[in-house]
Amino acid sequence: MKPITITNVRVVDLRFPTSRESIGSDAVNKDPDYSAAYCILETDAEIEGHGLTFTLGRGTELCVTAIQYLSKFVCNRTLESMTSDLNGLYLQLVGDTQFRWLGPEKGVIHLACGALLNAVWDLYAKAEGKPVWRLLTEMTPEEIVAIVDFRYISDALTPEEALAILQTGKRGQAERLAALEADGYPAYTTSVGWFGFSDEKIRRLCHEAIAEGWTHFKLKVGGDAIDDLRRGRLVREEIGWDRRIMLDANQKWGVEEAIGRTLQLGELKPYWMEEPTSPDDILGHARIRAEVAPIRIATGEHCHNAVMFKQFLQAKAIDVCQIDSCRVAGINENLAILLMAAKFGIPVCPHAGGVGLCEYVQHLSIFDYLGVSCSLEDRIIEYVDHLHEHFRDPVVIQDGHYMVPTRPGYSGEVLAASLMRFEFTHGEAWRTEHDEIRSLHK
Amino acid sequence: MKPITITNVRVVDLRFPTSRESIGSDAVNKDPDYSAAYCILETDAEIEGHGLTFTLGRGTELCVTAIQYLSKFVCNRTLESMTSDLNGLYLQLVGDTQFRWLGPEKGVIHLACGALLNAVWDLYAKAEGKPVWRLLTEMTPEEIVAIVDFRYISDALTPEEALAILQTGKRGQAERLAALEADGYPAYTTSVGWFGFSDEKIRRLCHEAIAEGWTHFKLKVGGDAIDDLRRGRLVREEIGWDRRIMLDANQKWGVEEAIGRTLQLGELKPYWMEEPTSPDDILGHARIRAEVAPIRIATGEHCHNAVMFKQFLQAKAIDVCQIDSCRVAGINENLAILLMAAKFGIPVCPHAGGVGLCEYVQHLSIFDYLGVSCSLEDRIIEYVDHLHEHFRDPVVIQDGHYMVPTRPGYSGEVLAASLMRFEFTHGEAWRTEHDEIRSLHK
């Protein structure tokens, strides 16, 4: 087969004006415009690699510029030169001697790494003619281990331990896959309880979601204490006590406040309390978790790399590990976190409240079930029902479950017409109708 | 007095081609071009506020763009509207509802916050006709406490505890100031032992530094183990055993490797081992510290915010707290860290290996001595002898000590001619002579 060479990297600043309808709103993120720094690896073959990192609107241009710079590590290379040493590629991207000062391995430049690596993986899977979950599942344990950067995590997980987890994961894989293909992977909906929604709208959305087969519902809290409780009771009235409710404070509280507020909300019997405080506060989460037990603590969507996740696990700070497929650098770093979580016995329930995230995380969770944790117990993927129409291979939800994707790639490819329409600032959505929103981006 | 209003924020991408001489080189940062995203608050009065955030060259444009965006929180405001609520300004800068996704409070956008806050503090001090250290020292404890963001740190330091520290700090202040004005603040030199220097050059520089009165010398390690030891012995030969040597691995090692390597280097009797592993690894540092005792562990130049420093202190992970005046957001966040370090009894020895950092951190350390920790025990400020000629009010070093600065402001103001000459890419330094270096920035 002719080698595939990357001939150019095209980067798009893609923004959807979701803030108009309070979609995605919570106690901290009051007006998100679901956006992405989006890149396309153009090649000398028929296929392209598409990758994105999720953002909230303003600042997407920073990730775009960072991707443009980092694309020098990808351009004019053959796909094979990258896939034969994916950890080497990761180290190049995070190790640029001048650029890394701006992180290292966090913030804008790490989000940019994520987009590029996602695009490389997309291209890799398309070249192999497989969806990413299958590409991963069909790799040998040794191949997976070779992708992971163990520099800073081997005190918690050695390559040998990772290998053993993956070898065990090969057993019973066919049966687990058959079960997934029949029933799908369990999901929960965040679309009913955004912060900016009225009581009436929340009631109506709960009602509709139950009719669609949803059994797990997330509610945003972190506002006035009485108000949070009232809204929680309202959701409980609608969904009853057999279904589950997750609460999400989006980092609103300090450690001691988080303990008090979580205990107050205990009457709602939450399945978990999410982001009770600063996403950097490992020891804070450990204390909160100890003091609010048995209420389970979740965090991760703002956790910026594998070194941080390692510590959340080591410190027994979380019950639920919520990786964000784009905040950490691509599938490489997601694999490291899946493996550490498996060793520590903590379920991974990926963050997917954004554009493209549902499309991505389904692959990670499916591989986690097929080859790493091998369990669905307390595993559930977030789902928000927005913007999927812009994807070439959108997620398929049936009866509150993600159906297993079958098309080659990582499922994050946005339709060319949508890329054109929502490109900031030249796309039609930003040029003509929405002058008011555009001015907010100044 | 007529109120001062910010009329415009000018931002400069300032880069010095230091990599040509291996200045600043270490095991990880092999070719730094000491740089800064630099901003000037233009006003309707005679004075301007100058602020910078230190960078290593490529990627400075990201900080420049971020500052340009965040300047909307400063432009067209009176100075008094900001100085009357500096914590409010901090919360505005770090809390932008869409921008914060790119952090929060870390990486590019936090470095940008730092530059802007540094500029506001510079303008504030100039308006008051005082150097920043004096402005801080003459504030009441209540005023200082009001500047600090306690949202995520009050579980480690309450406002009441901070107040008590600052009230105690008022005692004996005049005597401490008199001592500083006579002798200066102790410093150490990093300029002798950069990674890229030859053995001969290190010997010569040690020799010269001893003649200048230096007593503390930093050596970069993290290369080949035998080579590190050889270079350390060489420095010991030159400086003897009465002077002190600090070792700096610049994050080169994993946790277990760091323990082994630090123990190996123990024969050099280092005053501290700096950045033995990932800057995000609080628990890793705690383990290293426990296992290499009594060798002291230092880190902080890559520690991105007060929440991280809080945990380094809570976890007993460090013996030396090395704040970087620009990586955390301005004097506001540096104050939070100085106060926490004082409570935990850990000395602050600021990072200053960069352009403008020496100029900044002297103010922080002087205030720490005068009003917070009130001690010089195991306190020492880093010094590198490069690029000071570009500053309007450069640091003055005598006999290995920082002399107390007297001019109003934060001392970070770069001469107009230097701003012009080293502006990337239009300045003369980048336009004409150095085509080769310029091409590296592509």
Largest sheet of chain A: 9 strands, mixed
Helix and strand string of chain A, N-terminal first?
A: EEEHHHHHHHHEHEHEHEHEHEHHEEEHHH
- The CATH homologous superfamily of the largest domain in chain A is named Enolase-like C-terminal domain
CATH topology of the largest domain in chain A: TIM Barrel
Overall 3D shape of chain A? globular
Which bin fits the share of residues in helices of chain A? 40-55%
Number of domains of chain A: 2
What is the CATH level 1 assignment of the largest domain in chain A? Alpha Beta
This entry's quaternary arrangement is homodimer
- Which regions of chain A contain 5 or more consecutive residues with pLDDT less than 50? none
Characterise the protein shown here.
With 442 residues, chain A is an alpha/beta fold. Chain A folds into two domains: 6-128 and 417-440, Enolase-like, domain 1 (2-Layer Sandwich); 168-413, Enolase-like C-terminal domain (TIM Barrel, Alpha-Beta Barrel). The first copy, chain A, is built from 18 helices and twelve strands. The first copy, chain A, has helices at residues 60-70, 79-83, 86-95, 107-128, 132-137, 141-147, 159-169, 173-183, 199-211, 225-239, 255-264, 282-292, 306-314, 330-344, 357-372, 416-422, 428-431, 435-440, and strands at residues 6-15, 35-43, 49-55, 185-193, 216-220, 244-248, 272-274, 297-299, 320-321, 381-383, 397-398, 401-402. In chain A, strands 4, 5, 6, 7, 8, 9, 10, 11 and 12 form a nine-stranded mixed β-sheet that branches. Chain A has a three-stranded antiparallel β-sheet with strand order 1-2-3. In chain A, α1 (60-70) packs across α4 (107-128). The first copy, chain A, is globular and about 60 Å long. The termini of chain A are far apart. The model of chain A has no long low-confidence stretch (mean pLDDT 95). Chains A and B meet through α1, α4, α12 and α13 of A and α1, α4, α12 and α13 of B.
